[in-house]
Amino acid sequence: MNKNPIGIMDSGIGGISVLNKIRKLLPQENYIFYADSIHNPYGNKTKEELEKIVDEIMTQFLKRQVKLVVVACNTATCQVISYLREKYPQILFVGTEPAIKVSFDHYREKSTLVMATPGTIQSDRLMELDHTYHQKSRILLSCDGLAEIIENQELETLPTYFENLLKPIDCKKIEVVVLGCTHYPLIKEEIEKAIGHKVIFIDGSDGISKRVRQLLVENNLKNPQITQGKLSFVLTNPNTKKVIEKYLEF
Ligand code: DGL
Predict the structure, then answer these.
(1) Whether residue 28 sits in one domain with residue 70
(2) Index of the ligand 1 atom closest to the CA of residue 96
(3) Within 10 Å of residue 239's Cβ, how many Cβ atoms?
(4) With bands split at pLDDT 50, 70 and 90, how would you rate the model's confidence at 43?
(5) Ligand 1 in contact with 77 (CB < 6 A)?
(6) Mean pLDDT, to the nearest integer, of 167-176?
(7) Which domain holds residue 129?
(8) Same domain, 81 and 124
């Protein structure tokens, strides 16, 4: 039993889509959400740059004695989760990666579009997932600039952005969309509008919440209190607060 908080980090507001799911499953836990908006986007940073960034975040988390860290960012997970696990062996980490396995397990016959940042699309981990869970019809789409649009709430630019992005794709055929960046679940409606019809969305947040619960139980780290836990924030850009409030579910 342990009352220490769970640290959740992202390059900004995207991790809220993960935080919402985890808090729903584990409401009695205490949480620190680290929104690193000042370094957004992570999607076009090098591995070395990201290692430095996550070290800064870990310094803050360790000061606050977190018991587990959720890397609520596909890009950081694909690029630096092994680095984190090696450098901080005393901490339990849960990463986020494009839910290609889930789409393969449930919808392998369906035509699938994987949307992610350039950093994730180009990562070895994504290549590995694509290869291991090989599917007849899967498009990997690098969505350069999309996480920034969402982070900066420039949502009025989305129709033009998607028009250009989706031009080379035959959207009529798309049945499943894997949201490989935690910012993207925040604009599901806009994505569906751009594709032009209803699709099945898949993201990693269900799996992540269950994995967090499993690790807490296995390591006897659950918070014994029965009332709702505390939620606090570290915001590298204080203006992010308003946007977080918009997407926070409870
Ligand atoms: N939300 C992040 C992800 O899941 C990062 C987006 C970015 O900063 O480029 O990849």
Answers:
(1) yes
(2) 4
(3) 10
(4) confident
(5) no
(6) 97
(7) 100-202
(8) no
